[in-house]
Structures are given as C-alpha cells and as structure tokens.
Amino acid sequence: MRVLVVGSGGREHALAWAISASPLVDTLFCAPGNAGIAEEAECVAIAVTDIAGLVGFCRRERVDFVVVGPEAPLVLGLVDALEAEGIPAFGPTAAAAALEGSKAFAKELCVRAQIPTASSGHFRDAAAAKAFIKSRGAPIVVKADGLAAGKGVTVATDLDTAYRAVDAALVEGRFGTEGAAIVVEEFLAGEEASFFALVDGKDALPLATAQDYKRVGESDTGPNTGGMGALSPAPRLDARLEGGVMERIILPAVTAMRKEDRLFKGILYAGLMLTEAGPKLLEFNVRFGDPEAQVLLMRLMSDPLPALIAARDGVLKSIDLRWHADAASCVVMAAKGYPGEPERGSEIRGLDAVASDPNVKIFHAGTRRDGARVLADGGRVLGITALGKDLIGACDRAYAAVERIDWPEGFCRRDIGRPAPAD
Q: Of 25, 225, 285, 315, which cross-links 269 as Cys (Cβ 3.0–4.6 Å)?
C-alpha cells in the first residue's frame, strides 16, 4: 500500500513510526512532516489545512489510504474531500468532528445522551458569561468553544481570573473565531485520565489507557499546554472503571452520533475526570492525543494499519489488538517561551546517543533539519518516550534519556509519573 500520514507533530511521528513497520506498506508519505518523521517517511511540503493540495497529492501519487493526525483538517472536512475522490481515509467527517470542533455541541450531545459531564453554559456575550460565573462562584472553568491548540482552557480559582478569561476570548479575540463563543463549566475535582477507542460508526474497540499532564509547570502549575508528558497505563483507570467509561460515555456517544446522522469513524478520545462520583467527561477529541499517542503506540504490539482500515470500513469487530505488558512514559521537551512564543532555531545535540536504547524512542514534534543539524522549530519539540517494567521504570528511563540530550534552550517538567510532594 501507499499510505499518507497528515500532520507534523509528535503524534504524527508516532503514527508514521508504527505504520512504517507494517508489512502492508510499500511507500509512506507524511505531509508536511518534520525532521524526525523524515527518517520514517517521505515528507511532502503541504500544510495540513490545504485540503485541495492534499487531495491533489493523493490523486497524483495514487495513495491507497490516508491517516489524518490533527484535528484542524478533520474539522475542515479533509476526510469528506478524500472520500469524495474515492480515496479511503481514517478519521471522522466534518459533521462528526464537531464533537471536538465545538465544545457547545459536545455538551449538548452529552445532555441528550445522558453522558455524565460538568454542568455548563454557552455564551457569546461577555456580560452574560460573567453573570453566569458570578452566580456559580469559583473555582470555575472557561473554554473557547472551538479549536485552540490546547491553550483555550482556563481553570480559574477566583472570579477575577474567570472574568479575564472571558474578556480574552470574547472581547480581545485572543483565539480568533475559535473563541467567538465560550463554554463556562463547573469545576470537577479529581484525577484526569485519557480514554481512547477506535470507532467504526457502530462498534467501538477500547485501546490502552493513558494519562497526560496539561499544565506547563511541576505540580500542575502554570497555564494549560498541548501536553507536557504522558503515562500508559493510566494509574487509576482499572478494568472496572474502563467498563463504566465504555458503557456510560463512549458507546452512548457513538449511538447518539449515528442517530443524529453524524456517523463517527476514527478515534474517539474522552478526556476524563475521575471524581468521587465516578468518571465524568471533560471533553471529547476526535483524534489521538499528543503526547498520549506516543505512549500508546510504544505499547502496541499489533500492526496498527489493519485496525485503522477496519474502523474506516465499518468492520472493527474483526480486529483484536495486543499490548505490551510494559508501561510507557513520555517526557515532552519544549522550547523556552512555550506555551507563549517559543524560541526557535536553537540546535539540539545528543539525539544519536539516545537512539541506541531499543526501549527509548524520541518522537519529534517541532523540529527541522539544517544540513546535519536538528533545530527546534516549535513549542513542544521532542517527546522522549520509554518502556519499563512499570511506570516508575519507564519514567526513570525517559528522564535518563533526557539527561543525554544537549539542548540548553529546552525545558521539561521533572515530575512526570512522580508522586506529588507531601503538604
């Protein structure tokens, strides 16, 4: 097969790495890719939002199957455009991708399908949103309705912070059209976890569990990011809780989407809060998480490509996936300045020194090549991912690899997989 992976981040590097090992693949492309992905696939300089350019490339190169990594092209209808040309693609249509493209839509679906989630309100007017916040009190959560690259969420511990978040979206337009509407929701206390399922429109196959770290600083301080690290399995998601998530969240969502003529195929990613009352949905995403994809694909023993094809073809019941018993950890190295304006262009050395360990893989998220040099070219730049007999061993191995990388202009959290300090 001739396969195209769409995207340029750590998630897409992990997908390209896993798919490139499939005996079904003769040629693997990635658009646009990065310096690390270029070691697994032929990179082509087409932006993920250039729908016509991607479809034209697939026609010219006789691509047999497309795997769409990020959310933006899904919301823009890339899968619809490819399928209209007879090019099979993995991922939801634009109508189904609204589960991530509009948090208000997802909240309304939860109400209709009786999916447990935080109570919320949906606003376009700043005064109305502030009145709602004042009536509810803090802590409270303010979210841009649309896509904001993981940065449109404010967990406000006081009213002033919540009001500033409202103004940032609705008055200052910090998130553009993606923040022209906001969702204000109840703060849920507990531990976060990520739950992923492959979906073929009617059936869902749960994947291994994961937990990510959204805040930029240790002990979950500082602003939200796209993700500073991840673990798999999620420490608190046992088999009983997994079954409850499938029964009360994943399958009701799949059924509701089918009833509303928004047939969902692809990855359904439920961001969860494990509360005292049980798991509750924080938000739906319609693609692999990043950096959760890195730890999941490190643990996957099976060839992922037949499973992705089966989800697209609606025959997921024929698929069974096998997973390593080992745990996995990912530590994200980011450029100084992230999640604000990152410093670009610094050289990263020492990557080859890490490559000799078969239990460690460095997934590139924001890099480019300048001759023989690898340069930082984004906010989150590297995902140092490791396997270990348990989570402690996986984290120790990942951090040992971090120490061997020579990149003074980068930073990482030092508490991924570490217990919180005692009060």
A: 285
